[in-house]
Design goal:
With about 70 residues, the protein is mainly beta. Helix content is about 10%, strand content about 35%. The chain has one helix and five strands; from the N terminus they run ββαβββ. Strands 2-1-5-3-4 form a five-stranded mixed sheet, with no helix packed on it.
């Protein structure tokens, strides 16, 4: 299926979840904020929210510093 992640087209495996996509990007889901089709997504829902053809995601990695 075709999705867009951070403005780039991406082919995701069928039945992929938001968590699957985050892990495929090499990121730790505990430190990523996701917007799915313009709506913020709760972190606890990442493993249960299935991706669909045409979905648009923004993945933002939280960075600590001071």
């Amino acid at each position: 299926m075709n999705v867009v992640a951070n403005g780039k087209p991406l082919v995701a495996a069928p039945a992929s979840t938001v968590r699957d996509l985050i892990v495929a990007y090499g990121l730790d889901p505990r430190f990523v904020v996701v917007e799915l089709n313009g709506q913020a997504l709760e972190r606890k829902r990442y493993p249960e929210v299935a991706l669909h053809d045409g979905d648009r995601l923004e993945l933002v990695r939280a960075v600590a510093g001071g």
